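REVIEWER CHECKLIST
Item 1: Sequence provided? yes
Item 2: Single chain? yes
Item 3: Sequence as submitted:
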Amino acid sequence: GNDRGDDASVLQLTAEFALVQTVDFFTPLVNDALGFGKIAAANAISDVYAMGGTPLMANALLGYPAELLPAATIRQVMEGARQTCAEAGIPLAGGHSVNIGELVFGLSVTGKVHPAQLKTNAGARPGDLLYLTKPLGTGILGAALKRGKATEADEAALIAVCSSLNNVGSYLGQVKGVNAMTDVTGFGFYGHLLEMCNGSGLLAIVEFEKLPLLEAAKPFAAQFIMPDNTFRNWNHVKEQVETTVKEAFAFLNDPQTNGGLLIAASPEASDLVETMLIQNGLEAFAKPIGVFSEAPKAGIVVR
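Item 4: Structure as written out by the authors:
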C-alpha cells in the first residue's frame, strides 16, 4: 500500500504467492523514439524488481497528439517497449491509447513474489551495508539535452543507463540478509535513501567518493545545468541531510529515471550480494557506498 511510499502495491493470495502491481508513465526525456520506449518500459518494470519480485506481464499506456506525431514515431516508441519487455522475459500483452496534446508513455506491470522474499524500503538494520547499482546523473544529462547542450554521445549514454533493467532485484529478493531495497527515481538519491532511513529509524553514512557518478554529467553539473526538480528535492530533504561536500548537491538531489537499486544488506550477506551483482554484469557497483547506523534521529550524512 501507500503507508511507506514503497515502489509497488502487493496482494498476498496464498502463503507462497503474492501479486505485485505497479504503473508508471511520463513524457520523453530523450529525442530518440525507440530509446524513449525502452526507457519508459524499463522504468515501469523496475518497481517490481525493487520489491524483490519477478515481472509477469505488462500493458501499455499511451497518450499522444495524433494530428502532430506521425504513426511511424509511435511505432518506434512501442517497438522500444516491446524490446525491453522481451529482454525482461514478459509479454507486452495489451494497453490503451488516447489522443491528447502531449506524448506520454509507460506501462502497467504485474509481477509475482514469494511473501517471504518481499523487499520494502523499510527494514534496514544497524550495520547494514548500502549499495547502489547505477551511476547518478541522468537528470543532469536530460536537462543538458533539453537545453541543446548535450551531444549525440551524451544522449546515447543517457539511453544506455536509463534503459538497463534492474533485474538483479529478483535475485536479491531471495537473499535473507537483504533487509531493505528500493530504486532511485524522481526524488533522487537523497529522497529515496531518506525513505529507507525513516522506515528503519536509522542514520545512513555515505562516502561521496564511493558513489558512482556519470562521467558525461560532470561537466554539466559544474556549469549548474540541472533539472528544476533538483531544488524541489533538496527542499524536501534538507532538514535531515548533513554534508560539507559541495558536489553532492547536483548529483544526490538529481531526479533519476529508472535509476539503480539501493540495497541494505547485512555484513554477513555482503559476499553473496556482491557475487550476485558481479554475475549480473554489475561489477562496478559491487562495493558498498555507505553503512546504516543507530542515531538519535533518522537522516543522512555524506562525507
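Item 5: Key structural point noted by reviewer: The radius of gyration is 19 Å.
Item 6: Recommendation: ____
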